[in-house]
Protein: SDR family NAD(P)-dependent oxidoreductase
Organism: Arundinibacter roseus
Amino acid sequence: MKINNSHSIITGAASGIGRAFLYELCSYKNLTILVADIDETSLQATLRALPENSHRWVPFTGDLSQKEQIDALFEKAKNELGTVDFMVANAGFAYYESFKYEDWGRMQKIFDLNVLSPLYSLQKMKTLNGPKPHYTLITSSAMAKLAIPGYALYGAGKAALDRFLDAYRFESHDSGKVGMIYPIATRTNFFQEAVADSAQKPVVPWPSQTPEQVAKAMIQGIVHEKRHIYPSLFHQVTRFPQQLYEWLLYPYQAFYARELKKWESRFQNRR
């Protein structure tokens, strides 16, 4: 996919990986970018700090854990951009804690933003673009592949995204493509914000990388429309046994992909 002269949506754009990604986009030409974040002050400060270029930045402030806010985001995209060549569904957060409480709302909050929001956005991208080719990149985590104590709910959500993509690749037959990036711990304020008390310091997993490294990998993933993106070579190499197991199971998944097509065909013939 060509990035020059494209239309895009970036969520979680005011800090961390999202902010670094905006800086990477500044080296391209004539972009129209709908930038979204929950913090209007941080979003405006980020846009003011970007170098002058030929881009058109369209800000959107909203809580993307809410369906209505995602609908509003895509309504604005329709009015301001028309169609969207690529979207980076990057908004998300973590808890660092022991899971020993009864709080439905707290659990729902993290799954609404980290899981349901990008999946619903993927559907909205298909509706907005129709047959026009497009690409959706979802920010997952290395914790989707390896759970780390203290980040149980965060890892569970990222693993849910990973399993979704593993099945969805067999189901999707439209013009839209989807990819997922799996950063290791990134040196931003992300982990500090995972604790309830700002005076406490969370345990940050080793190894780590800069948000700029992740942003560069995201660019390459978009250009080549990759399904899986691993910004850390260390992570990619160390998970080879796991990846080999996944490859061995591919025929099993392919069999059930054919069964799904047969089932859908029978259902359509009955209508």
About this structure: The first helix runs from residue 16 to 25. Strands lie at 7-11, 32-37, 56-61, 86-89, 134-139, 176-181, 185-186, 208-209, 228-229. Residues 239-271 form one domain. The chain has a mean pLDDT of 95.
